[in-house]
Amino acid sequence: MRIRRAGAAGLLIECRDSEQVEAWRRELWRRREAGELTATDIVPGAGTVLLDGVPPGTAELLESWPEPDPATIAEGPLVEVPTIFDGEDLADVAELWRVSAEEAIARLRDTDFIVAFCGFAPGFGYLRGLPEEWAVPRLAAPRPRVPAGSVALAGAYCGIYPTASPGGWRLVGRTTLDLFDVRREAPATLSPGVRVKLVPAT
Amino acid sequence: MITVTRSGPLTTVQDLGRPGYAHLGVPRSGALDVPALRRANALVGNPPDAAGLETTLMGCALRFSAAARVAVTGAEAVVKLDKVPVDGVIDVPAGSVLDVGRAIKGVRSYIAVAGGIDVEPVLGSRSTDTLSGLGPAKLTDGATLPVGSARGASLDEGSPADYPEELELGVRLGPRDDWFAQRELFVTPYRISPMSNRIGCRLAGSALTRTRIGELPSEGVLLGAVQVPADGQPLIFLADHPTTGGYPVIGVVDDVTPLAQARPGTTVRFRALH
C-alpha cells in the first residue's frame, strides 16, 4: 500500500488489488466507528480508497496501523437480485464470450459478485466477480436513455442502473428491485462490500 | 411562503450539501460560494446550515406571502423591493416582490430568508444536486417554496468578497501528478470556459502533457480536484462533482470559492502549495 496526498484534507490509499481495497475500506470504516479515525468520506475505487475530510497527521496514523488482511475479513451481507435475462445486448455479449445466450445467462447467474465501489449515480454499484477475460467493451455510442433496473456489463464489471439515465453499458437483463431510496436508513441496496447474486426471476 | 415570479436560468435551493455519502455515489452538492451563503444566513439570523437560494448570472424574483427578513450576498446585483432599489438586510412586507437583478460582478447571488427555505431535506440536505437530481427541482416560474420559522438575531459576519479579473488558485499537487510533465500546470494561464457549471469549472489553455500512457481505474475524487481528461484541458471539480472518476487528478485546488463567482473568460493561474 502507498498513501498519496489529495489536497489539504484528502488521502488516497493505493492498494495491491480489489481485495485489499475492500479490506482497507472495512478496516477504515470500523476504525471510524470506533473513534480511532476522523474522516468525512471513505470512498473505495477500483484500486484505491479515498479518505476525504481528515485532520493533519492522518497519513502517519494510517502508516502506524497494520495492513488489514483480506483473508480474515468477514463476508458482507448477501443481496439476491431477481433478474430477467432479456437485455438488448445479451446476444452481443454471448457472441463476445463465444458462447450461446443460455451459457452467457448461466455465467451471470453463477457468478458471486461483490460491490467493489459506487459511482456514476447514487446507488450505482460496480460489481466485480467476472474474470478479466470476460471483460466486454462499452458501446461505441451510449444509449440516450437506459431504463431503471437495467442489469448491464462494461469491462469486467456488472452494474444495475438505479434510475433511468444515459448509459454505455451492455444490457443483459433487468430487475424490479429497488436500488436506491433516500427514505431508507441505508439508501443504497448495493453499497460497497455487499455480495450479490443475480437470481433468475420467476 | 414564497412564489417564484422570475426563476432566472438556474436558481436552486442550496445549503452546505450532503457530504458523507460519497461511498454510495452521492455527490456532496451544496452552495458553490459557501462564505456568501453563510454571510446571508448570518445577516438574517439563520444558522449556517440553513437553506437559501443560489442564482446564476440573471438573479430571480420572488413574491412573499408573509413578511420576511431577507439578505442578498454573493454576486453584486441590483436588488429591488417592489421596484425600489434596496440593500443590506431587507424587511419584506407581506405581498411584496423582491427582485435580484442580473449579476454586475460575480455570477451567483445568495438569498437567505429568516427561517430558511424549508423544503423537505434529502439525505440531510435541502440542496439541489444538478448531477444526480437529488434534492428539490431547480426553481421554475410559479413554483412555491415554504419558509421555516425565524429564530435568531441578525449578525454581520464578514465582508463581501472581491471578484478579480484574474484568479490565482493555490494547488496541492497529487494524487496523480506523476502522470504529467512536472510543473507544467504552473507555467501558463488558463481561461474559464463557458462550458463550466456546478459540476465543474472547465478551463481552456495549453493542454497538459501526459507522461504516462494508459487508463486510470476509477477512483474517488474530491472537491477542488483538477482532473485532466484525454484532451489535456483541466477541469476543476465543484460541489456537484461525481464521486469517482477515471481521469487522473493532477492536483487539488485549496479553495474553490473564487470559481463560484468567476465568469467565463476569466484568467486562472495556478500556484503551487506545499
Automatic annotation (TrEMBL), chain A:
Residues 1-190 form the Carboxyltransferase domain. The keyword Secreted does not apply. It comes from the Bacteria. It holds the Pfam family CT_C_D. GO terms for molecular function: hydrolase activity. Keywords: ATP-binding, Hydrolase, Nucleotide-binding. This is Allophanate hydrolase. It comes from Paractinoplanes deccanensis.
UniProtKB/TrEMBL annotation, chain B:
GO terms for molecular function: hydrolase activity. PANTHER family: 5-OXOPROLINASE SUBUNIT C (PTHR43309:SF3). NCBIfam families: urea_amlyse_rel (TIGR00724). InterPro entries: CT_A_B, Cyclophilin-like_dom_sf, PxpC. Residues 23-274 form the Carboxyltransferase domain. This is Allophanate hydrolase. It comes from Paractinoplanes deccanensis. The keyword Nucleotide-binding applies. Coiled coil: none annotated. The keyword Nucleotide-binding applies. Keywords: ATP-binding, Hydrolase, Nucleotide-binding.
